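User: Hello, beginner here. Can you help me understand these amino acid letters and fold codes? It all follows right here:
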Amino acid sequence: MPIVPDVKNWTWVLERACAECGFDPAAVRYEDVPPLTRETASRFAEVLARPDARVRPDDSTWSSLEYGAHVRDVCRLFDTRLAEMLRGTADGPDSRFANWDQDETAVTDRYDQQDPARVAIELAAAAEAIAHAFESVPLDERGRRGERSDGADFTVDSFARYFIHDLVHHVHDVRG
């Protein structure tokens, strides 16, 4: 049975704590994002090694494998978008991001059929790449801006916190 797409606008997590996973944007500094990213990859490696990694807990929830593939792709996407923000110009947002339909990607790329061990390796590499990318941004560049296709506006700093909530939230989703 297909998963019902998540159409919520999650940008509110930059303003207040997430009641579901406990993420508090006010408690996370930019410098916390790279180590939290690496920790997420490590936690997902453990989760993806479970014998039940392919099993959906119910018909409306992704399996740990599907969440792991999604987190890998989130890391890759944010790495690309961060690079776009840093290459941009000073007129308006430094970059406008193309739309990404995460649910369509899950179906098209067959997240449920991927190899959990390979996803863990790819997630670790993608997490390391984006962690390093965030570490490499000079302090005076953290105000550069990007705009999502729906008009949501980010600075590199808010983009980092928005990103890490996604990872923290999905670690919460697969706890067990």
Remarks:
- The mean pLDDT is 89.
- The chain has one domain: 35-173.
- The helical segments are 33-48, 64-87, 102-108, 116-135, 156-173.
- Strands lie at 95-96, 145-147, 153-155.
